[in-house]
């Protein structure tokens, strides 16, 4: 049985949203899933307005703990810490799958003008950079337009999901006027994808299903 370690940087999903557990049950039903959480590192990155060397090392340590626990694959559920996971991937001998990697690849292949919407400011740069990176690998040129639904993440953490949703949808509508495709840069917004598509008429990509789908492919590769 393949052992998958899921790395979290906040309790938002661990405590309040079963999305990743449901996707794992559907797409990798025979795998053993274990969770590793640093519940403060995302808050630290937000406070620091970027990923410090110390925050990077915290993600490396989380990945090393997963490796020490016998994980066959590591799945990072956080988009904001993507660059830190790239460092971690070089420091462990276990394959690392990032939740937003498949989404970035698809976004780069489908559109030239891409809107990137986030509720955490430090997610905008890493997600935009990842899309541009994938575009380059495909020989394509894209333009990303970042937009922050300011304050929405704190409102979600405080428990007001409805207010969070209204802020995200409002920003998505404003951004949709200027782009061909919208990327919701955090998994915490993914349940709004269908609503935003309906209200804007613009295609929307989210990371969880695409990311876990990529993880499932790696599981099958390991199984031979």
From TrEMBL:
InterPro entries: Asp/Glu/hydantoin_racemase, Iso_Racemase_Enz_sf. It comes from the Bacteria. It holds the Pfam family Asp_Glu_race. One of its GO terms (molecular function) is amino-acid racemase activity. Belongs to the HyuE racemase family. This is Asp/Glu/hydantoin racemase.
């Amino acid at each position: 049985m393949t052992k998958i370690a899921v790395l979290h940087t906040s309790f938002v999903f661990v405590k309040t949203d079963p999305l990743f557990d449901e996707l794992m049950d559907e797409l990798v039903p025979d795998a053993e899933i274990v969770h590793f959480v640093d519940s403060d590192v995302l808050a630290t990155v937000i406070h620091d307005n970027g990923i410090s060397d110390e925050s990077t090392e915290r993600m490396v340590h989380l990945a090393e703990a997963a490796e020490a626990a016998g994980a066959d694959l590591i799945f990072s559920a956080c988009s904001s810490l993507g660059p830190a996971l790239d460092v971690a991937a070089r420091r462990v001998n276990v394959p690392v799958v990032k939740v937003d990697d498949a989404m970035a690849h698809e976004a780069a292949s489908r559109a030239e003008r891409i809107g990137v919407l986030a509720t955490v400011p430090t997610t905008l740069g890493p997600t935009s950079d990842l899309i541009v990176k994938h575009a380059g690998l495909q020989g394509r040129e894209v333009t990303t337009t970042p937009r922050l639904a300011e304050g929405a993440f704190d409102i979600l953490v405080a428990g007001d999901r409805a207010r969070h949703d209204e802020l995200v949808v409002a920003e998505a509508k404003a951004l949709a006027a200027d782009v061909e495709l919208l990327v919701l840069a955090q998994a915490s917004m993914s349940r709004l994808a269908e609503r935003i598509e309906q209200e804007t008429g613009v295609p929307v990509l989210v990371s969880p299903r695409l990311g876990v789908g990529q993880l499932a492919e790696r599981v099958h590769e390991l199984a031979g």
